[in-house]
Amino acid sequence: MNDNYRRISAAVAAAGATLVAVSKTKPVDAIREMYDAGQRDFGENKVQEMQEKAPQLPDDIRWHLIGHLQRNKVKYIASYVHMIHAVDSPELLAEIDKQAARVNRVIPVLLQVHIAEEETKFGFDAAELRAFLGDRPAYQNVRISGLMGMATFTDDMTQVRKEFHGLKLLFDELKQTYFAGDEHFMHLSMGMSSDYEIALEEGSTLVRIGTLLFGAR
Ligand SMILES: *Cc1c(COP(=O)(O)O)cnc(C)c1O
Q1: Which carries the bigger pLDDT value, residue 68 or residue 118?
Q2: pTM over 0.85
């Protein structure tokens, strides 16, 4: 097993966070090797790829869907996905609630917040989130467990830190306002290979790391 895995998993654990090993495009052998070294949380960004890999690997792997999810694909993963990180619309939440009910589960999800400078069609902004959460349906089978964000793709680590810091402030505000007394709203998924150390300093509870663990894709 490579030294990076030991070093990074120890650093993430020391910060009290969870390491999600992002295994997209990597073969099941590479995942199994990391599993044998003790890793249990793995992240994929495509439903089809997760669908292909999961049956070939041990049942106690916790599969995180970290990429954009289309509504019509929720049904394929509802029975086993551990957490869905990038929920970016009320309609997707409703579909996850429906599909989770069908398989008698409660699925934890994170709401994706648009924090980067780049234009993207994915993610809520802060105002949308406040409006939605203030008036949200009482879901039975989907559990809003926190927020997820991706910083701007840049070498400017001051900028990255500012964005992570802003996401943490929003998390704290929403928790206090809309999730008071709800201990499940506790996760902040932020940080990748290039910026996970900053993310941990800024309060991340789930870092999603691929390249540093598995090598370049
Ligand atoms: C690929 C991916 C990652 C991991 O990126 P690395 O730079 O390889 O660590 C994290 N989050 C999401 C949403 C991804 O798609």
Answers
A1: 68
A2: yes
